[in-house]
Design brief:
about 200 residues, alpha/beta, Alpha-Beta Plaits, Rossmann fold, 2 domains, two-stranded antiparallel sheet, 6 helices, about 25% helix, globular
Length: about 200
């Protein structure tokens, strides 16, 4: 059907994520550092996202689009991800991005999201997420995290790790990165047991 729907100018988009947070229908997400309309049928065409865009990257357009599906939107709200950035793999993440500015950083071991059932609700909400496995990834996490913390306005860091010894490398990398960045940041460590409980 032909209807009014939002349009995002990627040249103007700075990836801040304010539009995605303002969208009550969860039709927007930050993908590769840019806002994307991920589902036409989730966009009601009302434009709650427009006044939140600081760069004027969002406008209305009239085009062929799937009809707004209120039932699908409501069903999706019950299973909405809290993820606000992409990529999440620490080895793939950029060292600077608008979504880091003013962010609370979550650095989590890969396994934690599988072991702890309420990972999205309890840890990802309101944070920029970076995941990795020091046992399997061939990367110097401390070096990359130092650049991220030093070159961006990071407000604090939460480390979520498993109780297994290999996750100690992730925790140590974050500690070293905070120290090497020359900044004083609040940070905390949450440890998940192999049975999926917070220790």
């Amino acid at each position: 059907m032909i209807r009014q729907i939002i349009h995002i100018d990627e040249e103007k988009c700075n990836g801040c994520g304010l539009c995605a947070n303002a969208c009550h229908e969860n039709a927007l997400a930050i993908v590769d550092g840019k806002a994307k309309l991920i589902r036409d049928d989730y966009c009601d065409g009302m434009g709650d996202c427009l006044p939140n865009c600081p760069t004027g990257a969002i406008t209305f357009e009239t085009r062929e689009a799937a009809a707004y599906d209120e039932a699908a939107v409501e069903a999706n709200k019950n299973k909405k991800t809290q993820l606000n950035n992409w990529p999440v793999q620490l080895k793939l993440a950029p060292t600077t991005s608008p979504y880091f500015n003013g962010a609370k950083l979550l650095v989590a071991a890969d396994c934690t999201a599988y072991a702890y059932a309420k990972f999205h609700q309890d840890f990802i909400r309101g944070k920029v997420t970076l995941i990795g496995c020091p046992k399997l990834d061939a990367i110097n996490y401390a070096e990359k995290l130092t650049k991220i913390i030093r070159d961006n306005d990071i407000q604090g860091v939460t480390i979520v790790r498993m109780e297994v010894p290999c996750c100690g490398g992730l925790e140590m990398a974050v500690r070293n990165a905070i120290q090497n960045s020359g900044k004083f940041l609040p940070w905390q460590v949450v440890t998940i047991s192999t049975t999926g409980e917070i220790l």
